[in-house]
Amino acid sequence: MGAHIKSRQGGQALPLTAILMVAIVPIVAFALNVGIMSDAQTSAQNGTDAVALAAAEMIRSGVGEEAASAMASRVAASDGLNPATLTVSYLTSSGQPATAASQVAFVDAKATVTRNAILGTFLGIKWDSVTTTSLASVGNPGPACGMCVLSPSASPALSVTGNSTITVQSGPIAIDSSAGDAMSMSGNATVSATAINIVGACSGCTGSTVSVTPSPTTGTLATTDPLAGIAAPSVAGNASAPPSSGSIYPGIYSSISVGSNETLTLAPGVYVIEGGLTLSGDAQLDASGGVTLYFTCSSYGVSDTEPSCAGTNGISIGSNATVDLVAPSSGVYQGIAMMVDPNDPNTISIAGNGTDTLSGTVYAAASSLTVSGNGSGTTLNSIFIVSTLALSGNSSLDLASTQAANAPAVYQNAIPHLVPAA
Predict the structure, then answer these.
(1) Which H or E element spans position 53?
(2) DSSP structure string for 2-45
(3) How far is residue 384 from each of residues 72, 239, 242, 361, 387, measured CA to CA in Å?
(4) What's the rounded Cα separation, in Å, for the pair 85 and 107?
(5) Pairing mode, if any, of strands 190-193 and 165-168?
(6) What is the mean pLDDT of residues 126-135?
(7) Which of 369, 368, 403 is nearest to 383 (CA)?
(8) Residue 260 pLDDT more than 60?
(9) Burial of residue 209, with CB atoms counted within 10 A of its CB: 0-12 exposed, 13-18 middle, 19 or more buried
(10) Which helix (H) or strand (E) holds 339?
């Protein structure tokens, strides 16, 4: 009797095992297929990255699109891509198809990879495929921008009014706002640069009293913040009030104010300033030994997101005052003369009639910068990276940056490079 029961139990177990196998096998096969396609996605993305960069390198070297596409096909084959599924497109700075190699600013590479599915017939799927796309910039001979105005929507993002003047001798003016008045000009304003690239459009650029050279290119692709990865300085201690003359050393300061006819010398290093910088008449600020000024809120070191210093940040330069600011030539903040906390919502105001010697990048990607007063016309070895910029009165900015004096990352775009997906 016992043997008969065991036999019946064994017979019942076989159908149950078969049912479980039918249920489990598709699940395992599906999981394996997901893994295979994930690997295929990674491999294909690496392949199209290499293809886009190779074609961009060829265009940069001066060859035509046909030779660049031939190189792209060879790179695709060596990276395991099927050249038959590869599409390489050559685009202008505004993202339109280029009609000549000299117009190419970007190379777009797209490829499809197909893999046979495990148990495809059983699952009703014969194969799976993935398509990847890569965009590479051909690069430019100078910095990514001589003046970068990064707000994506400000109206306007760059405002030039009155008798104010902007001159950018090295690199283009890049304006990321898509607004119809992303750039706005009025009065007798003057703007000149090697190029003026605007995602949106310009209001007033064709006015009879303004001067814009060259004519802006509108509808361009946005410029990526070249210093987006840089970290805020980490400086320990409590804020102190420095003397108005003599010498001070790197640290945290509530503000820096230089008295009339006095000279304040800053030793090399990073200075965290929770308030503003003020120079009275005939004052002198000597920061020529390699200095970075970091402007932030009074919550520095406590809560960097608290906008507790609204309205306190500013740079005021009195009549005949002199500023000599030179960025460090090495280290984390190499080439950065001024930097503004990205969590600080304040407008940075530069006002006055002094004489400035500035060598190094001004990085205020989240801040609005206003310049007013009577500019001296001094040429600054600087790149300005701001959210918005407004010049008024008789103010002027003349930027002629060199790679040796400015942040190295701004010049990484000088060579072919991948453009992050939007």
Answers:
(1) helix 2-61
(2) HHHHHHHHHHHHHHHHHHHHHHHHHHHHHHHHHHHHHHHHHHHH
(3) 36, 27, 27, 6, 10
(4) 16
(5) parallel
(6) 77
(7) 403
(8) yes
(9) exposed
(10) strand 336-340
- The DSSP element (H or E) to which 323 belongs, if any, is strand 322-326
Query: Which tokens belong to 394?
Result: 């008789």
Please give the structure tokens belonging to residue 136: 């590479």
C-alpha–C-alpha distance, residues 305 and 116, integer Å:
51
Structure tokens of 47? 């392949």
Please state the separation of Cα 52 from the chain's center in Å: 20
Q: Which residue has the tokens 């505004």?
A: 94
Helix 2-61 with 65-78: angle, nearest 10 deg: 150
Entry pTM: 0.69
Average pLDDT over residues 345-354: 71
CB-CB contact of 128 with 33 (8 Å): yes
Q: Where do the domains of the chain lie?
A: 2-137, 147-418
What single-letter amino acid sits at 81? Answer: L
For 396, phi then psi, to 5°, come to -150, 150
CA distances from 207 to 202, 210, 303 (A): 11, 6, 46
CB 146 within 8 A of CB 133: no
- Answer for the pair 228, 247: CB distance below 8 angstroms, yes or no: no
Q: Which residue has the tokens 């707000």?
A: 151
